Amino acid sequence: MTRIALLGAGLIGSFYTQALHGARSRDRVELVCSRSATNAAAFAAKWGVERWTTSIDEAVADERIDVVIVALPNDLHKQAVIAAAQAGKAVLCTKPLGRTAEEALQMLRAVEEAGVFHGYLEDLVYPPKTLKGLQSVQAGDLGRILWVRSRETHPGPHSDWFWDKERAGGGAIIDMGCHCIEIARSFIGKNVRPVEVVCWGDTQVHPIESEDHAVGMVRYEDGAIGQFEVSWAFRGGMDLRDEVAGTEGTLWMNHWLRTGMEMYTAKGTSRYVAEKSESNGGWLFPVGDEVAALGYSNMFTDMLDAIDQAREPTETFYDGYIVNAIMDASYRSIQTKRWEPIELPIWRGKKPHDDVGIVPDFDREHVLLKQERMPDGRVKLILRNKVTGELTHRFK
Ligand SMILES: NC(=O)c1ccc[n+]([C@@H]2O[C@H](COP(=O)([O-])OP(=O)(O)OC[C@H]3O[C@@H](n4cnc5c(N)ncnc54)[C@H](O)[C@@H]3O)[C@@H](O)[C@H]2O)c1
């Protein structure tokens, strides 16, 4: 059994606790910490948590606790992680790891210097569909990955602090771009260095200082592109979709709206439908098991198994720091309107390499650019001469 202290009793704290307690699970949140005593006590009563406190320091110092989960607003991640590391506790931190790469780097150093287990709680690389897709990509079924498009859009977050640029560290990019960036990075290959970013971001609707809409492209060293699309101005619920394009195949995944359960109610419902659902009447898109669909169940299985097996989990603070560095470059690009380099003072992946030659040879003189069955039934081949570059076609 893993004995857990949960820091933060908000939306994500509830999802995490549901996933951890699961059906007859052996892991328990034993201590919950929230700023307000009323909320902490209410959370503890609702989820069967033994103890509660309003002090982060008291929670991380508790000797009966093995693992600290940081589920606090973004401006408190660094302080909580450093306190947990200094107390010698395994520490799992929600996304984004830091508000900047500098903050994330300080957290990475703190856990590595303390020698404690660290996991970055990026749930959206763990949904069942994504895990299956990743297995196919890693087995080479889609060939080399060229382009990953990841979208998270909804009508805006549920707590005041998200809308405060200083406390959150940014807007839709820091809130949701972190998910999309890590999804793309996971499909492209976490050893492939992200090189530069071009990004548009604007405040289209809300009277706030941060961006409520952004689209960016991350170029990786092997030529792959990770495209992220995030918005707090999207209407109609929460749109979570990923697309992966490789030299040999394509993958499309829809995680939330229209996942296979569609319900019509003429009289409407007063019940919760799904996270960020905007309507409660007419056609609705409920989600059968949100905790599983968003990857929380698989994520905590990986994290807690990794602790038991003394191995690294799929997502560590190092991954969180890389994501923060990509977001820093995205914010710079919004200002300069140019491609901005991704600054990585620590890089532990592949060194520069040459990945050309993905188009197969046809014969000694030609490569095969394209093969297609035409309406008359014949198969047409488009060839390029390897020396002269001349383009020709012939029929098989
Ligand atoms: N899919 C995901 O991975 C996901 C989804 C939502 C939120 N998050 C992340 O989780 C974190 C929390 O978000 P949320 O949606 O749960 O926010 P929330 O506003 O719903 O809850 C925040 C909680 O932190 C507590 N808190 C605030 N200041 C505190 C303090 N000084 N000491 C103790 N407790 C304090 C509040 O009392 C509250 O219980 C954020 O970093 C957010 O980015 C992740």
From TrEMBL:
Q: Which residues form a coiled coil?
A: none
Q: Which residues form the GFO/IDH/MocA-like oxidoreductase domain?
A: 136-251
| Superkingdom classification of source | Bacteria
Keyword 4Fe-4S in the entry? The reply is no
UniProt keyword annotations, A-Z: Oxidoreductase
Extent of the signal sequence: none
Q: What class of enzyme is it?
A: oxidoreductase
Is this entry keyworded Oxidoreductase? yes
EC number(s) on record? 1.1.1.292
Pfam families referenced in this protein's UniProt entry, alphabetically: GFO_IDH_MocA, GFO_IDH_MocA_C3
User: Annotated Gene Ontology MF terms?
Assistant: 1,5-anhydro-D-fructose reductase (1,5-anhydro-D-mannitol-forming) activity; nucleotide binding
The residue ranges of the Gfo/Idh/MocA-like oxidoreductase N-terminal domain are: 3-116
> What is the protein name for this chain?
1,5-anhydro-D-fructose reductase
> Which species does this protein come from?
Allorhodopirellula heiligendammensis
